[in-house]
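Here is an idea for our session: we take a single protein and study its fold together. To get us started, please write out a protein record for me. Start from the sequence, derive the backbone structure tokens from it, and show both lines together. Go ahead whenever you are ready, and we will take it from there:
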Amino acid sequence: MRHILDGAIARRNFIASLGGAAVVGLMPHEARADALETALMAGVETPQSGMDPSSQSCSPGSIHFPTVAEIEAQVPTRSYRRAVGSLLLNTHPDGKVIQLAKMPARPTLWDFFELRFMKSRNHCLQSANKALQAGADEEVVLACLVHDTVQELIHTDHGFWGAQMYEPYLPARSTFAVRYHAALRFYTDAPAGYCYPNEYREIFGIDYVPPPHIESSYRFARAHRWYDAARAVTVNDLYSFDPKAVVKTDPFIEIVARHFKQPPEGLGNDDSASAHVWRTLANPDLPL
């Protein structure tokens, strides 16, 4: 499966989307990493017919990747923190946020997909579709469907944030998969079909070492009976996504109806431990 920059056409298109080679040449590593992260959320190219589906871009080869120190040195050059979710800012120079449509009085998960998960929904729908086609059970498909939607609010530690956001509404195994998929991304599992991707060498630095809480989470999840569910989310996460593909919600309507505990008063209006997260997503322009 293809890295987003594999192939001359893909590289040219990506560079052109940033303003051309001259502009990219002037961009600091951090800005390039932000651009790549945005492109990843939008989706990477699907493998062409006949391509070996196991040929993931996991070896750094001769590609130059920034170091952790180089990435950290760029922090003062930005006007924002990279933890901030996609819904809350526009990282393009002189970019502005858009006017959001108002949410229904009793919003459902699908209302949030339509009106708030604009940056993450295509990625998550394709992830869930890939899991469905691979024969994953419904709890795994559901975890894939929602696994990155919390990144509309926050990027850092998004597995933990996402699990907190969805825990009152998902089956326990689905919540486990959402919580631990983010930690498992940093650790290869060749038999499961997952290896450390070059995308992370670009975003985190070639010499990046996961912090202790990620290592601890990985070891806990690796020994857990639900490890397969969390690992399945990572396997269906990064690769083989097409930014032009449109995946309909139809295959997932009944899965959500069977397994998602929709509060009758609407997400954010119930008394769950994460209702405030949904209210923040619904009303991100409130000053307090």
About this structure: Residues 29-42 form the longest helix (14 residues). Confidence is low (pLDDT under 50) at residues 1-12, 21-26, 43-56. Residues 66 and 201 are 8 Å apart (CA to CA). Residues 1-288 form one domain.
